[in-house]
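Message: I would love a firmer grasp of how sequence relates to backbone shape in proteins. Thank you; the sequence and its tokens follow:
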Amino acid sequence: MSADDLGFIHRLVPGQNQTAAPFLLLHGSGGDEHDLIPLAERIAPDRTLLSPRGKVNEHGITRFFRRIDDGGWDIEDLKRRTTELAGFVSRACAAYRLEKPMALGYSNGANIAWSLLLNDPGLLKGAILLRAMLPHDPRPLPDLTGIPILLIAGTHDELIPVERAGLLAALLGEAGADVTYEVLPVAHGLTGEDIVLVSEWLVRHG
């Protein structure tokens, strides 16, 4: 779990299924490298899990990229942190001899996951984005043709307006990704309905 020469504090949980893509777990604000492991083990108990901890500490809250004082995103920091995280993923996959991973991100982690896709389309096999949003226009877009993406939003999400999630789904589709966009009557927290949708999607796209 040390940062060592890979650059991020992280956990690696080896899985028995070596044919399935490993999960790159990207936690939400205030989380760490342990947070999404129980969720991933429920969804796909036999997959290898690679789970880094975000490097930003905002008043004791761990994140993958910074916000500015009014709560908006620090876009320049997002770009820099995305490049930094992409380097970690490449180094970790080489060091641990992992196949191309599929991102499973929640909230802040889901947002840096789609940023990874736009930054380096060849880095990930696909992405599961739970409570993600589009706060700005990141065009020009790369070619994401055929990359499977599941985006799940909540109609009662107190942090992410559902229309912002819809804009992200549309933008990823515009880039050519194979997008599945689901909206649940839930708030920002994850629910059993999310687990069902992710599990069903993985059968088709995992």
